[in-house]
């Protein structure tokens, strides 16, 4: 309706996956519009970005989590109030795809199966172009392997590259629309996601509920 007043809401999105696969770069590219290679995340960090959908102003809290084995069983403490989760793997690392099983099951156990989830591959611009220390080509995860995994989990999938500006905005636009539909703000019509626009960008912030210095950017 025309007299619908603008409102704002907080939305929490968390990204999970193996360590060293480009999760932090993916987030920082979306938030800051720049390709950066940040330091490794220590347990968790989060970033804030304001977006606008029609009359809705949405404050996104995007939580970055460490994927190293020593942190794997600790990150579930940051799942609370999560609206959507991004499960990430490296397109040139089949093990990182297999590790998503842990996060998929962990998210379902902690948040329920209805929480919005998407799968992304990172570094798709380097697909089939990575080499090991002996200069042997590293086999990329095949389309067949990805399609089988995505079909098994029943999730939406995006190929992404922060360096080449592929799929990053599409991933978040899809998530935002799914969240708004779930909240009955948008309804069931397939409104194009180009209605989502940036209001302002904010730097990374630290989770406030933890005071023992466990989080770092």
Automatic annotation (TrEMBL):
**Could you tell me which NCBIfam families the record lists for this protein?**
small_GTP
**To which protein family does this belong?**
Belongs to the small GTPase superfamily. Rab family.
Q: Which PROSITE patterns match?
A: RAB, RAS
Query: Gene3D superfamilies annotated for this entry?
Result: P-loop containing nucleotide triphosphate hydrolases
According to the lineage, what is the superkingdom? Eukaryota
Query: Mind telling me which PANTHER family this protein's record contains?
Result: RAB FAMILY, RAS-RELATED PROTEIN RAB-7A
Q: Which InterPro entries match?
A: P-loop_NTPase, Small_GTP-bd, Small_GTPase
Keywords noted in UniProt:
GTP-binding, Nucleotide-binding
Name under which the protein is recorded: Small guanosine triphosphatase family Ras-related in brain (Rab) family protein
Record-linked SUPFAM superfamilies: P-loop containing nucleoside triphosphate hydrolases
TM helices/strands, residue ranges: none
Any matching Pfam family: Ras
């Amino acid at each position: 309706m025309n007299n619908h007043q603008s409102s704002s809401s907080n939305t929490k999105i968390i990204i999970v996956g193996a360590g060293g696969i480009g999760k932090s770069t993916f987030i920082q590219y979306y938030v800051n519009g720049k390709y950066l290679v940040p330091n490794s995340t220590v347990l968790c960090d989060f970033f804030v970005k304001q977006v606008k959908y029609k009359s809705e102003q949405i404050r996104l809290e995007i939580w970055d989590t460490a994927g190293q084995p020593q942190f794997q069983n600790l990150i579930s403490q940051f799942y609370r109030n999560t609206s959507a989760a991004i499960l990430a793997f490296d397109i040139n690392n089949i093990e990182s795809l297999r590790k998503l099983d842990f996060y998929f099951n962990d998210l379902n156990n902690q948040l329920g199966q209805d929480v919005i989830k998407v799968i992304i591959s990172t570094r798709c611009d380097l697909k089939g172009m990575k080499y090991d220390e002996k200069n042997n080509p590293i086999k990329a995860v095949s389309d067949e392997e990805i399609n089988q995994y995505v079909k098994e989990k029943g999730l939406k999938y995006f190929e992404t590259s922060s360096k080449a500006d592929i799929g990053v905005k599409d991933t978040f636009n899809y998530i935002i629309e799914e969240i708004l539909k779930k909240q009955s703000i948008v309804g069931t019509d397939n409104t194009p996601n180009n209605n989502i626009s940036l209001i302002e960008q904010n730097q990374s912030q630290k989770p406030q509920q933890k005071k023992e210095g466990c989080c770092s950017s």
